[in-house]
Amino acid sequence: MPGRIKVGRSKEARQQKRQSEESELVRLKQRIEEFARSGLIRISAYLKQDLSKEITKFSELPLSKETAQGLKQSHFVTLADIQRKALPLALKGKDVLGAARTGSGKTLAFIIPVLEGLLVRKWNQHDGLGALIISPTRELVCLVLKLESLYGSGSSDIPSSPKVIGGKDLQTERDRLSKMNILVCTPGRMLQHMDQTAGFEANNLQILVLDEADRILDMGFRKTIDGIIENLPPNRQTLLFSATQTKSVGDLARLSLKEPEYVAVHEASQSSTPETLQQHYVVVPLPNKLDTLFAFLKTHLKSKILVRFAYETFKRMHPGIPLLHLHGKQKQTARAEITARFSSSKQVCLFSTDIVARGLDFPAVDWVVQVDAPEDADTYIHRVGRTARYERNGRALLMLSPGEESSFVERLCTKKVPIEKITIKSSKRLSVKEQLQAMCFKDPEIKYLGQKAFVSYIRSIYLKKDRETFNMQDLLLEEYAASLGLAGAPKIKFGSTCQAKALKNNTQTKRLTAAEISSGSDGDDSSTNTPEFEASAQSRRERRTDKAKIRTKYDRMFERRNQDILSEHYGKLIKENKDTIDADVDDDFMAVKRTDHDLVDEIREPSEVQKLVHGMELINQMRKPPSKRKAQQALSKKAIAKNAPKGTRLVFDDEGEAHPIYELQDEQFFLKAGLPERQKLEYLKIQSGDMEEKDLLDKQHSKEKHREKILRRKAREREESSDEGVQPVSNDEDKSPPVLVDEEKTKKRKVNWFDDHHMPKKNKAFQVGDLNSLEDQEALAAYLLRGE
Ligand SMILES: Nc1ncnc2c1ncn2[C@@H]1O[C@H](COP(=O)(O)OP(=O)(O)OP(=O)(O)O)[C@@H](O)[C@H]1O
Predict the structure, then answer these.
(1) Which residue range or ranges hold the Helicase C-terminal domain (predicted)?
(2) 110 alpha carbon to ligand 1 midpoint, in Å?
């Protein structure tokens, strides 16, 4: 019996205990909710839910109705593996390191916790920046923003999902920054705002997300990220996602993660790339790569292809499939337009640099072709990840030079990349070499691009760390140049080891500024981790300050630091004895991610070629006919008078030397001539004597003028009288020829004549008084000629 009693008591006791525990739990939950409402604890809603059970559908997630509504609109039903594993942890407020294959849905795995994290905290405009998402490239930022607005569209508690994208007007961003609650941006631009935007603070930040974390944490962004972290509160949630996740303790320590949960979805899998992706490689000697690529395009006209290689030449050869081109030097609007066109097209080939190597989610890409081998297996994984996204099929082709084959394939195997070797049928082979040569010959721009592609490629090989795979000695330079249509291999100068080291040290200090500039200019932070970028940062800054200057096409062309390779005959033209060519910084064709291997690349003065072309530009401008309006304006008298040079009055001395009218006398000479007062009196005396003389001359001159005037009048009157038939008579004294006189008329005229001319009254006929003057003689001659 005692046993029975014992059992009864323990059951009762257990019941009591459970009841008290339950009421304690209820009290605790109530308390937690209160805290959550007041914002004192970080996650509330999810503590009430059991997130330990396997959740497979979005509808099973304890999400706010706003996020759930947004997800319903997106038609997503089941959770992707990474979402299933990472979301419960992230929603609980844990720090998460998420690794999953490309295209497996990582973006949603951090967007949902960000939106939810702020929604449950009832975050509003006055709370400031709540979440910061850092993405390495602008394209990725755009993609994240698209998703964020999709899923967060119903959220009324988050007033706005503001955006900051590198490359936009800094001032506009600054104005909007203070109102932001969620910020998506590139690292460089973020740091720039933290340093330079007054009033911008991240003290209240709750969640930090690093998208493509391995890339963001690598050497190139190291300083920038450290700078950003310094400005963030340590008490925050941090989420890191990438296809190739970092596990470096050092990296994680830098981010001050708190007991992070490592969520790796495909770690146990045989492949680190999507299972739906078929991967091939083909061994092609470097000089035959373009031929192979062209043949490939010709045989895949109905596909959507992404290629990393030269675009300009292929565009001119019309392979029969629309071609697009995307690179970091394009403006953000152009990039967005091309990205949209590629996304919406079904049959198209996009030639691109590594700006689309990561994260971008183009729908339905059939092929990713890599004409050059990437620097490492991780980069390869990200590149091929642009196809076979989220359970779709895709194919990838990698061209390897014979020397690269064995070690690179080994590297891929180590990273669990299943890749198969294929060969190209000889019937499918084509040669574009001759076409390229003809193009280079006709068009200097193509030649320039060919040279640039050559330099970029060689440089990329030189920079690669993996010396076992990439060997400079293996390169068939002349043959490769010929395959690009060039007459010979351009010469390339690589800096000495010492210079490289000096630059490297310098680079460390410059990197921060460079990152800022990058995000301020093109925002593609993917370029900031290259040493070339650092070297060019200064020149970019200079260029920006020189913005006011009008720059011609040639200026732009020559501002590139590989200007000397433009054309060899320019060099010959100016007899420039430069036998070296500096490597190119515009990695449009071959982007290199490696950062700890610097090249020497000094910033130069404008070269002779540049000056020469400037001269030619000026001459052309001068030759250009002015507009009609300008020509007329220039000819107007007013303009001539206005533009005419102002004369200076000079006086000439006896020797014919010119002097200004007033010359200051030598002081010594002046003092020698006596006291100033006396000199003044003497001067006045001389001047008054001169004036008297001049006065007399003037009087004589005016008398003469008066006399001449009278004589002219006389002659005129004589002429008039002769017109009226009055015959002047001969005057004995004058010995003028006798003439017949009309008595009657003479009488009548005589009165007038004598009145005016004081002619002697004794003569009935009037006399010509004085024939000395020219006028009198002319009048008489005219009279006689008329024969009257
Ligand atoms: N649960 C889901 N159901 C269906 N489609 C999904 C789901 N989650 C994501 N997707 C889709 O899968 C595609 C790839 O997703 P996302 O871009 O997030 O991949 P990722 O893992 O970030 O790739 P990467 O490593 O290349 O950046 C997108 O088109 C996205 O809309």
Answers:
(1) 276-436
(2) 11
Other beta carbons within 10 angstroms of residue 505's beta carbon come to 10
Cβ of 356 less than 6 Å from ligand 1: no
For the record, the structure tokens of 678 come out as 């006396």
How far is the centre of ligand 1, averaged over its atoms, from the C-alpha of 120 (Å)?
25
ipTM given for this complex: 0.97
Task: For 376-417, write each residue's pLDDT tens digit.
Answer: 998 899 999 999 998 889 999 999 999 999 999 999 999 889
Name 221's Cβ contacts closer than 8 Å, sequence gap at least 6: 136, 187, 215, 515, 525, 528, 529
C-alpha 70 to ligand 1 mean position (Å): 16
- Model confidence over 291-327: pLDDT tens digits? 999 899 988 998 888 886 677 778 888 888 999 988 8
Give yes or no for residue 467 having a pLDDT over 70: yes
At residue 250, the pLDDT reads 66
Which residue among 389, 392, 526 has the greatest number of ligand 1 atoms within 8 angstroms of its CB, and so is best to mutate? Answer: 389
Residue 218 in contact with ligand 1 by CB distance below 6 A: no
Q: Please state, as a whole number, how many other Cβ atoms lie within 10 Å of the Cβ of residue 762.
A: 5
Q: How many residues does the chain have?
A: 788
Find the 611 Cα to ligand 1 centroid distance in Å: 52
Q: Tokens for 469, please give them.
A: 């795979």
CATH superfamily of 56-264: P-loop containing nucleotide triphosphate hydrolases (3.40.50.300)
Whether 560 shows a pLDDT value over 60: the answer reads no
Q: Cα(367) to centroid of ligand 1, in Å?
A: 18
Q: Is 754 in the pocket of ligand 1 (CB under 6 A)?
A: no
Ligand 1: which of 361, 383, 392, 393 to mutate, judged by most atoms within 8 Å of the beta carbon? Answer: 361
pLDDT in tens, 718-771: 887 765 544 443 344 444 444 444 444 444 443 333 333 444 444 445 455 556
Within this chain, domains 56-264 and 277-429 share the same CATH topology: yes
Q: How far is CA 353 from CA 358, 404, 691, in A?
A: 11, 21, 92
Determine contact, residues 41/118, Cβ cutoff 8 Å.
no
Regarding pTM above 0.90, the answer is: no
For the Cβ of 103 lying below 6 angstroms from any atom of ligand 1, the answer is yes
CATH of domain 277-429: 3.40.50.300
Residue nearest to atom 30 of ligand 1 (CA): 105
Asked whether residue 284 carries a pLDDT value surpassing 90, the answer given is yes
505 or 369: whose pLDDT is higher?
369
For the chain, give every domain's residue range. 56-264, 277-429, 433-484
Reduced to 3 states (helix: H, G, I; strand: E, B; else coil), residue 774 is: helix
